[in-house]
Amino acid sequence: MLLTIDLSSDQPIYMQIRNGIVTGIASGQLQDGDALPSVRTLGAEIGVNLHTVNKAYKLLQNEGFIEIQRSRGTFIKAGNAAKSAADFLQTSGDQLRAIVSEAITRRIDRAVLHHMIDHQYDELEGNEP
Amino acid sequence: MSGNNLIFICTYILVACLFILQPWFSRTNVLFGVVFGDEAIWQHAQAATIRRRYLIEAISTALALLLILFILPFFLPKGTVTAGFNITLFALFFIDSFIFVLANRRTRILKHSMVPSAQLTTDKIIVEVGKSDRESVLSLRWFLILIPLFSATLAVVWFGYPYMAESIPTHFGIAGPDRWVPKSWHSVLSPVFIEMLLGILILFIRRAPASVKGNPNAAPGYARYRKMMGIFLIVFCLLSELLFLLIVIGFITPVRTLLYIIVTLVDLGFLTAMILLYNRFVRSKRATGPILDDDDKWIWGLFYFNRSDPSIFVEKRVGIGYTVNMARPIAWIVLVGIIAIAIVFSR
Q: Which of A3, A45, A70 to mutate to test the interface with B (most CBs of B within 10 A)?
């Protein structure tokens, strides 16, 4: 799976790594048991500090998307994330509220926002729109 | 002309040829350390002029110094010819590097005068995830094969010390050893330390990133090439270990010169194979997709300086092999350490 990092983006690089891997899992490009490169290798490939990659991996581990095994490496284990779906819905409520608020202030129709979400679902799940 | 002078001249010609031809040992979208969108730059008329000028300047310097090398033995007192050779070689490195830097500047000016390539980017990098280190990084198990010969050399030095001659050979010419120093732990341990140094250096390049980045196809097949290069260097190190083992055995009992020559020739054969490997797996590959325009991280196209890159060693932008990331203090420590050990134990 290819991960694109925008070095000039306002979004921190560790978040871009985290989001990229979550997107990979959602689209099926990364599946349970797939190995990820080590912190050192990924840091060297992107050309970023090891702490940046470490931060992304720790976040993914805490969120239940990956498993870090000390001597064997890092692996996708999205099953853990499914278990904490209720937590996700609770924590992402604020982010969703901010997006909906902005949509309302910009007079964007509810149906358009719904369509956008459906489109993202279709794209990641590989369904024809 | 003595046998040793002949060796000096041959070594000089070989080193000069490899040094002058360095710009041709780079990826096809790199010219004098400057990265371009594709390999079309090698067909550009102005780039051809820069290359021609570089060749004329570098070859003239090498020939002038070769002439000095020829007449040097007639003017220098006996015993100082080696020092004269080393100074000539250093002058070649220094002057030809300066000529390279001038060519790098001309190439940068040429790049700025051209329409920016759509393939070059300064802020996007695409990396492959979903691959473990096992697939892309040489396993540490490969290094285990270096241990038996290293241990054997150390054991011969350790247990054989009382039986060693009072004079230890430190330099070998065509006719065998031609320079000796009094026996000491320092002189007999030199081969062991040089072996260790070689092994440590190979360990560092396991994760060295490619000199051109941007996406996995900016340096196609690089991870495979890096693994092959690592195995090649381990075999080279193994042969060097064998050579050093013969040398330390030679401290105790005479070893036939032919054996040294055979191992040295096989070692040189491996160096030649490394050039062929480079041409087959690096030079012949075409870069595609977005390519990171990071010329500002390559000072004069020779020295890599990138604060955000955690790598200590990276692939050289020009020439076969690896260089250090000057922005990392540990790289300086490694570099100074290598030079210090090499100086202390080659004396």
A: A45
